[in-house]
Amino acid sequence: MENEITNRDQKTILIVDDEQHIVDILVYNLEKEGYKTLQANDGLTAVDIALSQKPDLILLDIMLPKMDGLAVCKRIRHTLNVPILMLTAKDEEIDKILGLELGADDYVTKPFSVRELMARIKANLRKVEVSAEGSVDEKKENTNKIVVGDLSLDLDKFEVQVKGEVIDLTLREFEVLKYLANQPGQVITREVLLEKVWGYEYYGDIRTVDVTVRRIREKIEKDTSAPKILITKRGVGYYIASK
After folding, report:
1. Who's near 112: CB < 8 A, 6+ residues apart?
2. In b/e form, how buried is each residue of 145-171, taking b as 16+ CB within 10 angstroms?
3. Which of 29, 77, 39 is nearest to 61 (CA)?
4. How many CB atoms lie within 10 A of CB 219?
5. What values do phi and psi take at 149, rounded to 5?
6. Contacts by 62-67 with C-beta closer than 8 Å and gap 24+?
7. What is the pTM of this model?
8. What is the pLDDT of residues 106-119, one digit of tens each?
9. Mean pLDDT throughout 223-242?
């Protein structure tokens, strides 16, 4: 009985990369951590497997034969709402930004640390789990929240609400909003957001922050041209209105 429960609860991860040695490394490490794995070496196969097997998370390389990772991400996002982690090379800044635009939840830079990747995978899967738990068990009282005006962040459920309406954010978008909401009214520079939210492995440009903020605004603001919650301080950075 124990094994049946374990197998039923086991998470499935789709690995999409045309470099077989990278796939092999990922399969070995993921299965060692208790995950089931699926594999695809080109974009078309990745879409077919994703839509038919419905994995719990997708590791998606950008440079793929038949259909590139950005097109795959866009295609999958039309149907599935599972975490997508893009695998990018250090010099592919524009691809990281486009990936975020198309709905990727996160990205990891090649060559990647397996330990860092596993931490990212667990964090993204945990966000999905706690969101599901929260929707089932609303009776459980939860005080681990940040409330600023119409904005409410539940840190245990990774849930954001605006005027009581639940907003679906990626893990990275949630972390950006959380960092800003912890200091309402205080302007935070793009550089600080890069350092505090994206972390030490990110060596990139501030456009990534701008893209993420724009995506958050599209979800939480009524009028993105005149935002009332997430405000820009021109030439400096961003802040949450403290009203």
Report:
1. 87
2. ebebeebbbbeebbbbbbeeeebebbb
3. 39
4. 15
5. 60, -125
6. 62/86, 62/87, 62/88, 62/89, 62/92, 62/95, 62/99, 63/18, 63/89, 64/16, 64/17, 64/18, 65/18, 65/41, 66/42, 67/42, 67/43
7. 0.68
8. 878 888 888 888 98
9. 91
